[in-house]
Structure formats: structure tokens, C-alpha cells
Write a structure and sequence with these properties.
Elements lengths: L3 E6 L2 E6 L9 H16 L5 E6 L4 E3 L4 H10 L1 H19 L5 E5 L2 E3 L1 H7 L3 E5 L5 E2 L2 H4 L5 H10 L2 H10 L2 E2 L1 H7 L4 E3 L4 H13 L4 H10 L1 H24 L1
Parallel strand pairs: 2-3, 3-5, 4-6, 5-7, 6-8, 7-10
Antiparallel strand pairs: 1-2, 8-9
Helix pairs in contact: 1-3, 2-3, 3-11, 6-11
Length: 241
């Protein structure tokens, strides 16, 4: 199955998702993203990466809940593989060694919003779309690494608002809150993201990677060390339902 398309624009690789109507995360899709990020990280001709989506309205609406329930019904190992894929995707994205720019062409919701937060920069179309964390309303708790990610990138009052209210935030609101770095006309979104990734990519090398790793060190440590027992508890709760 074709989950995405990769285009090389000079030194920048553009990963365009096109998985179903809303790019919802299931195990195969998450594995494919991690595999492709691994390849791009090892490709010396790639100095930066942009991630966007082909759909007009959606970047990603997060986890495929129906799929997740189906995996739990198949048995604990299937459910565990799904949750471990979520963890691996976030760790890979947060720790990606090269510049990583998210070009939000539409709604970024739940795990789609969290995934986008794992990039270095977020650009969003200025006219449509929203970002939202509805987990408080659908009774799905955040993992410690997810909370740490938002606390690391946003002023605390705004990450609080996103986590506790479940509200929708427009592109302009998301920019004012610090979630989005720039709002851009839709027809210039990807080109501006490529321009930024190319600019950052001029400094790509061991020093860039070390600086980026140190900036995200606390988030990665929590994801690697604190999230696993939380995931196991989450798994046990899933299997009781």
C-alpha cells in the first residue's frame, strides 16, 4: 500500500502523506513513516525533510481508534505492537537528526497534533484548519513524553489550554500560542517549508545533530524511560474494555 510520496526538491525531501481520508495512524502506517525517516536520515544528499499531506482538509486526525480497538480484540500482542509503534514514531520524530519541518495543510488533531509537535518547526495554512487535543473528552490520557513535548515547546498556560480544554484553535490562535511558527497561504505552504528546511539544512552535520539532541534530551529521556510503564498500564486498561 502506498502511504506516502517522497519528492526531492534540491537538498530537501518532501514526504506527502496520502493514507485514507484523514491520515489516521495504524501500525503499518506508523512503521512506514519510521522506515522512511530512517532512510532519509541516512541519505547524505538529504539535508532537511518536510512532512505534509495530500488531502485538502486534513494533515492527520491521529490514531485510528477503530483499528486500535480491533487490535485489542485480536489479543494483547497486537495491541502492544500498536502502542509500541506510536512510541517508536514519536521517538524517531523528536530525535530525527536533520531539520524536520511540518507543513500543516489542514486539521492536526490528537496524535496528529502531537506528531506535528515533534518536528523542529510547524508552518500552517493561514485560511483553514485547526489544531486540537481532544483526549480529555474521549478519555484517553496523555503519556508523560507527550506532556513533556508540549511543555518543552510552548508557554505553560497555552499547553495547559490545549491539554485541559480539548478546544479547537485556528491557525492564527495556534501561532499566537507558540504551537505554529508561521501561517502561510496554502499555495505557498510547501515551498515556504522547503525554503526553511533548506536554510536549516545548510548547517546540517554533527554539530547541528548534537545541538538538536541536547535541546530535546529531556523529552527523549522521558519517552524512552518513563513512557514504557505508562504504556503497559494503558495496555492493561485497553484489554479490560
Amino acid at each position: 500500500m502506498d502511504f506516502m510520496q517522497i519528492d526531492k526538491l534540491g537538498s530537501v525531501a518532501v514526504m506527502t502523506w496520502n493514507y485514507g481520508p484523514q491520515n489516521q495512524f495504524d501500525t503499518p502506517f506508523m512503521h512506514a513513516i519510521v522506515e522512511k525517516l530512517d532512510e532519509l536520515e541516512k541519505d547524505d544528499s538529504v539535508k532537511g525533510v518536510v512532512i505534509t499531506a495530500a488531502q485538502e482538509k486534513y494533515f492527520s486526525t491521529g490514531l485510528n481508534i477503530e483499528y486500535m480497538i480491533g487490535q485489542s480484540q485480536k489479543g494483547i500482542e497486537h495491541a502492544r505492537a500498536f502502542l509500541e509503534a506510536v512510541s517508536a514514531l514519536l521517538i524517531k520524530t523528536v530525535g530525527f537528526a536533520k531539520p524536520l519541518v511540518m507543513a500543516l495543510n489542514g486539521h492536526a488533531v490528537a496524535a496528529g497534533c502531537i506528531f506535528a509537535a515533534a518536528g523542529d518547526y510547524r508552518l500552517m495554512r493561514e485560511d483553514k484548519g485547526f489544531v486540537r487535543l481532544p483526549e480529555v473528552e474521549i478519555n484517553i490520557p496523555f503519556w508523560p513524553g507527550m506532556t513533556a513535548l508540549f511543555k518543552d515547546m510552548m508557554p505553560p498556560q497555552y499547553s495547559r489550554d490545549m491539554f485541559l480544554t480539548g478546544s479547537r484553535f485556528t491557525p492564527e490562535q495556534a501561532k499566537n500560542m507558540g504551537y505554529v511558527d508561521e501561517t502561510v497561504p496554502m499555495d505557498k505552504l510547501v515551498s515556504r517549508a522547503v525554503e526553511l528546511a533548506e536554510q536549516l539544512g545548510r548547517n546540517t552535520g554533527p554539530t547541528y545533530t548534537i545541538i538538536k539532541r541536547d535541546l530535546r534530551d529531556n523529552v527523549l529521556r522521558i519517552m524512552r524511560e518513563t513512557d514504557p510503564p505508562t504504556i503497559e498500564q494503558f495496555l492493561k486498561n485497553m484489554m479490560k474494555q
